[in-house]
Amino acid sequence: MKIKNIILLVLIISASIIYAQQQTSMSLDMHGGYIMVHRYNMRHLIQSHIWGGELSIGKTNFNDVFYNHLYNFPEKGVSLYFSNLGNPAQLGNVFAVIPYMNLPVNKLRNLQIKAGVGTGYFHITFNQTENNLNNVISSNFTVCINAQVQKKWKLSDKLELYNKIGMTHFSNAAFKMPNLGINLVTTSLGLRFTTTPSPIFERKSKTEFERNKNYYFEAGIASGIKEVGGPGGLKYAIVNANLAYIYPLSFKSELLLWTDFFHDRSLEIRLANDDWRRATTADFIQTGLMGGYRLRYNKLSFMIAMGAYTYSKYRGLGNLYHRVGIRYQFSNKLSLNTTLKSHFAIADFAEWGIVYRIK
């Protein structure tokens, strides 16, 4: 009996330790702010300030996993987001589901960066006959990108007050026109409740882990679809091939330099509008050179980059282009990739592809 009691006691203690290393949280905040006017021809839609709320359910693991130590035990979860848009007739309201990661940036873990990518839903969109002044959103479902800086104050062991400022972007990546997109700039005040107090868990030193500083190369191919020619215009497929040089900066960040090769049939319409001539095969080709930064969390990584065209017959959107993207590595050699290509605030198209690590 004594042995059974000892085993039972050990199991209870072990379960308590495991539970203590995992903290579940619920956060609720209200926000206010405005729609950023990033294009002059959307000013007619701005009628008043916006307000809304966000409910977040998250989990923090205080354990020995390398990336949890590296990022000071981040919180991962899902947010339910709502906001009115200050114009009930032409814009209505927006709802979103946003998986997120909350990254502490100081030792006290009370200053954090919250970032997520999800799906937005607009119940009022562009309509040629009933709502033709809405030139920012034409599809009910859009991509939603959210970034916030958050400061917390502890009220008790399980309750915190927090304030945050941030931006939330909605766009369908030019899959359907018109699509100027919407950027919400907000400030929020909320409460965060946790199931257990935050345990005292000492982070391991980076020197305890081996780091591979060797550069390597990646080759990728991707494709996307965009609509050109205004509402109801033609949809075109774009193909991109690229070769990238990757230089690790640290355990969690890398510098990128790569070349792009685009085949974009939609340029036929844009070139015809510019100089009234029939496009040739060479007109559909664009090449570019990009530099970027990638942040890694285990098999998931986030990328932001800026580039310039080295060859392009079409110059209507300028010589510079940009990318933001997410990648998931599912083997040592292969990764899945999705990115948004844009020209500053103008979305060009979203692309999905596969990447192969050469070295």
Can you give a write-up of this model?
- With 359 residues, the protein is mostly beta strands.
- It folds into 2 domains: 23-194, Porin; 214-357, Beta Barrel (Porin), CATH 2.40.160.
- It has 3 helices and 16 strands.
- The strands form 2 sheets. Strands 1-2-3-4-5-6-7-8 form an 8-stranded antiparallel β-barrel. Strands 9-10-11-12-13-14-15-16 form an 8-stranded antiparallel barrel.
Features:
Porin; 2 domains; 8-stranded antiparallel beta barrel; mainly beta; flat; 359 residues
Can you give the mean pLDDT? 88
Please give the radius of gyration in angstroms.
Answer: 24 Å
- Under the CATH scheme, which class of the largest domain? Mainly Beta
Structural class: mainly beta
Strand order of the largest sheet: 1-2-3-4-5-6-7-8
Contiguous helical run count:
3
Order of helices and strands: HEEHEEEEEEEEEHEEEEE
Q: Report the biggest beta sheet as strand number plus sense, adding barrel if it closes.
A: 8 strands, antiparallel, barrel
The geometry reads as flat
CATH topology of the largest domain: Porin
CATH architecture group name of the largest domain: Beta Barrel
- How many beta-strand segments? 16
Our count of domains comes out at 2
User: How much beta, percentage-wise?
Assistant: over 45%
Overall helicity: under 10%
Weakly predicted, low-confidence segments: 9-20
Roughly how many Å apart are the termini? 59 Å
